[in-house]
Amino acid sequence: MHSEPRYGQTNILVYLGICSLMGSLTVVSIKAIGIAIKLTLEGIIQLAYPQTWVFVAVAVVLVIIQLNYLNKVGCLQNCPENPNRKKGTIVDVELDDEDEDEDEDENEDLVRTSLGENQ
């Protein structure tokens, strides 16, 4: 998270790395919550232990952090208003395709009018 302000806006791997790290910690927390649920169903109530609540809080916080960084990754790639977005991404290709379709329509109209004048 230290290099996120400096390199995050230009390198997608920073955000993906942070998200992956948070994901691995989330797995550990969810595993602990699953064990607590299993023990509670077996009759050993785990809600009285503070560790259970710590793991629930950690899991919630880590999931929110993951969603935040995944949103940053999505915006880094697909937001046209991002000044640091690299050219040639999916958004640019889609915009170029729309321009080509308009150009093709104009060319077809020109061909039709020129053929109509010759006949």
Could you please describe the fold and organization of this structure?
- This protein has 119 residues and is mainly alpha-helical.
- It folds into 2 domains: 4-79; 87-119.
- It is 77% helix and 0% strand.
- Helix 2 (12-41) packs antiparallel against helix 3 (50-78).
- The longest helix is centred in the first third of the chain and has 30 residues, at 12-41.
- The protein is elongated and about 85 Å long.
- The chain starts with a helix and ends with a helix.
Give a short synopsis of this structure.
Homodimer. With 119 residues, the chain is mostly helical.
Entry keywords:
119 residues; mainly alpha; transport; magnesium ion transmembrane transporter activity; transmembrane helix
Set out the fold topology:
Elements: H1 4-7, H2 12-41, H3 50-78, H4 90-118
Helix pairs in contact: 2-3
- What is the typical, i.e. mean, pLDDT? 75
Report the β-strand fraction as a percent range.
under 5%
**Count of alpha and pi helical runs:** 4
Global shape: elongated
The unreliable regions are none
Major sheet size, sense and barrel closure: none
Could you tell me the number of beta strands?
0
Query: Helices and strands, in N-to-C order?
Result: HHHH
Give the C-alpha Rg: 26 Å
Main location: membrane
InterPro entries: Mg_trans_NIPA (IPR008521)
Pfam families: Mg_trans_NIPA
Subunit structure: Homodimer.
